[in-house]
Amino acid sequence: MSGKEKQYYKIRKRHLWIAIGTMLAIIVITYYKQDLYKMWQHKQGREDVTYEGIKSELKNNRECYLCGNSDRSLMGYYRKFDTIGLISLNDWYVVDFGLQEYDEQGNPLKSDSAHTSTQMTNTGEVSIMTSSSPNRGMASIDVSLPENYKPDIKMLQKRLCQACLDKITDSLETSKWKYEKKQAIPLCLVDFKTLEIYAVQDWHIGCSIRDYWVDMEYDEERVEVNAYYLPTRE
Questions:
Q1: Interstrand relation of 127-133 and 212-219 (parallel, antiparallel or unpaired)
Q2: Rg of the chain over CA atoms, in angstroms?
Q3: Residue 148 CB: number of other CB atoms within 10 A?
Q4: What are phi and psi of 161, to 5 degrees?
Q5: pTM score, two decimals?
Q6: Whether pLDDT at 154 is above 60
Q7: Residue 206 in contact with residue 215, Cβ under 8 Å?
Q8: How far apart are CA 174 and CA 12, in angstroms?
Q9: For residue 189, which of 170, 174, 175 has the smallest C-alpha distance?
Q10: pLDDT digits (tens, 9 = 90+) for 160-197
Q11: Which of 46, 102, 171, 213 could bridge across to 199 with cysteines, CB 3.0–4.6 Å?
Q12: CA-to-CA distance for 218 and 158, rounded, in angstroms?
């Protein structure tokens, strides 16, 4: 009784090295495809994302959400306060940092008690958590954004006068790699006293607003804004 003879196959050395090279290439692409894609993106260069030439469609400037008295905007209320806030632009949700305390007429309140207040809000568009310690002059706003969230320019055109629309769209300017899927973040900072607007984009990590210092941190669909009241010492 004879056993089966072993069979051997000859492979040309060149073909062997081609097969090994192909396997290594597949492994490298599989494990490093994200890094390779980023390298390719960076070679394509950067481009600016701007909103120049956007025209307001608001017929009555007194109804402007920023400088007017629309009953759909809280800016008419917050303009009484000598402080700063953040605006979620797509739903125009205005948040006071709570760095100082005021009465309903906008008069500052003095308090010797050290307390921290925390508030969580879901606007239907974004989730916002605010934490403030007025006695210490410190506050933070943490905003969670939906995936692929982008500015609703049509809404802004309908609700802002041209001067305020220009301020907002200027704050939305950013830059990205040419083929990067990146949108401007539909948030901005606002000085309630002067109505000046400040950018909340990933190129902007800090700014001074009169007696306040603000810094920003970005992490994918999350933005954390920390603010400090730093008046000049007499």
A1: unpaired
A2: 27
A3: 9
A4: -70, 170
A5: 0.79
A6: yes
A7: yes
A8: 55
A9: 170
A10: 999 999 999 999 999 887 767 788 999 999 999 999 99
A11: 171
A12: 29
Q: Could you tell me if residue 45 is left (phi over 0), alpha (psi between -120 and 50 degrees) or otherwise beta?
A: left
Quick one: residue 124, left, alpha or beta (phi over 0 = left, psi -120 to 50 = alpha)?
Answer: left
Is 211 within 8 Å of 108 (Cβ atoms)? Answer: no
Query: What tokens does 111 get?
Result: 């308090």
Per residue, the 3-state secondary structure of the chain, as one string, reads: CCCCCCCCCCCCHHHHHHHHHHHHHHHHHHHHHHHHHHHHHHHHCEEEECCCCCCCCCCCHHHCCCCCCCCCCCHHHHCCCCCEEEEECCCCEEEECCCCCECCCCCECCCCCCCCEEEEEECCCCEEEEEEECCCCEEEEEEECCCCCCCCHHHHHHHCCHHHHHHHHHHCCEEEECCCCCCCCCEEEEECCCCCEEECCCCCCEEEECCEEEEEEEECCEEEEEEEECCCCC
Asked if 50 and 171 count as a contact pair (C-beta separation under 8 A), the reply is: no
pLDDT at 1: 47
Q: Are 192 and 79 in contact (CB under 8 A)?
A: yes
228 or 109: whose pLDDT is higher?
228
